[in-house]
Design goal:
single chain, mainly alpha, 2 domains, about 90% helix
């Protein structure tokens, strides 16, 4: 039982002592990846933002109409059977 505990402690100690080097490696890899990223132009950002905003308004209008139609249909059904 104690040998397992000491192994776990040793591996935890190694993990803790290796943390600064792993953090440095991660940061260097992150910088290298960010250099490879191709960023969109301002024109592309504006165009895609416009598409998203128009789409949101179009979908909200569609769901408003569908919700209104279903509400009226259910209300009419309840009124018919309530008599």
């Amino acid at each position: 039982m104690q040998s397992e505990t000491s192994i776990e402690t040793a591996s935890l100690g190694q993990k803790v002592s290796g943390w600064p080097q792993r953090a440095k490696d991660y940061y260097e890899d992150l910088k290298a990846e960010m250099r490879r990223v191709t960023w969109p132009s301002w024109k592309q950002v504006r165009a895609t933002t416009t598409v998203v905003i128009v789409s949101v308004f179009a979908f909200s209008a569609y769901f408003f109409v569908v919700d209104l139609a279903i509400t009226r249909l259910i209300t009419k059904i309840f009124d018919t059977f309530a008599k």
